[in-house]
Amino acid sequence: MKNPPSLDQLISALRVLPGVGPKSAQRMAYHLLQRDKPGAEKLARALEHALSHIGHCQRCNTFSETPLCALCADPARRQDQLCVVEMPADMLTLEHTQSYDGLYFVLMGRLSPLDGIGPRDLPLEKLAHRALDGAVREVILATNFTAEGETTAHALSELLKGHGLTLTRMARGLPVGGELEHTDPGTLAQALFERRGVTGG
Amino acid sequence: MKNPPSLDQLISALRVLPGVGPKSAQRMAYHLLQRDKPGAEKLARALEHALSHIGHCQRCNTFSETPLCALCADPARRQDQLCVVEMPADMLTLEHTQSYDGLYFVLMGRLSPLDGIGPRDLPLEKLAHRALDGAVREVILATNFTAEGETTAHALSELLKGHGLTLTRMARGLPVGGELEHTDPGTLAQALFERRGVTGG
């Protein structure tokens, strides 16, 4: 006794999604076929459409339907700051703060030996080319503060140093509204180590 | 600053999958477009194929590519026992035990008012028609022992009683290899209540 072949194929195909194991894939397939056929149809079409329409911005490497993404094409952005992030979501999050008006470069990943992602899997040449275009003066290494993100930031600083660029990293410290008692020791130690002078003190 | 429209459409389409919220949908879309385009292609095709090929067995209601599923078409199965389960996965699990050679009926769901699934959303008429075909003598109500499953079993027993069928429910009790100390009080109480005579005792 087995599932019909096309059901098994669907269950197996759903496992390409990150974080979806055999049990969830089965549950998803049942749900789509039993309760949401229009949703399944929509998903199939969205996949096809995205595959045929989405490429990478030739300048910042983020997902884009046009050769140049909207942000890179915006003449109002500062051309001398380049903020390097891991994923497009990081760029969206930073844009949400409305506190940065330079440009971005999206790595589409991070160095992660455990996942088999090494320097060759990141667009380092494209980044070097972009950062050394003559207009960029500061590169903000805004990879995550995880082990992988820190390793990536280090590798990027090695890649870009010695070309007269200012390389910066976002500050670590307590979150706005954060209380010392509820901050992890690592962050607290870092915040103490990177303490800043107080004006008027 | 936004995602390209076809990326946003894909993220929104992925949310038809049960248990997938906005963050996972975004992560899935990034993964597919960045790291597994062949997988995305495969998923789109599997969805289309399953949608066009999979229907329901006219006898037991499970997913099937043929009018009659392989199990219902098997003449070696006992025709007088009908085991009613919630989902095809339950049928597969029971088949795996190799301890049942009757037939099945798959509800494709359970009564679940919280999810908006009432009696009209289950194939109760189809079940009644199937159970009262004259060959069936025992109906085993094998819905889950959850609140929804118990409610469903009760509704099914109301539906099928008074027609001379033997209605049974699977036994509750300790699992094989189970220890009293590590069994929850509800199961323990039920196991005590449903204790059986010991032969030779």
Automatic annotation (TrEMBL), chains A, B:
Q: Which InterPro entries match?
A: DNA_Rcmb_RecR, Rcmb_RecR, Rcmb_RecR_Znf, TOPRIM_dom, TOPRIM_RecR
- UniProt KW Metal-binding keyword: yes
| SUPFAM superfamilies for the chain | Recombination protein RecR
Q: Where are the transmembrane segments?
A: none
Q: Residue ranges of the C4-type zinc fingers?
A: 57-72
| GO biological process, any | DNA recombination
> What are the entry keywords?
DNA damage, DNA recombination, DNA repair, Metal-binding, Zinc, Zinc-finger
The protein's role, per its UniProt record? May play a role in DNA repair. It seems to be involved in an RecBC-independent recombinational process of DNA repair. It may act with RecF and RecO.
This protein is called Recombination protein RecR
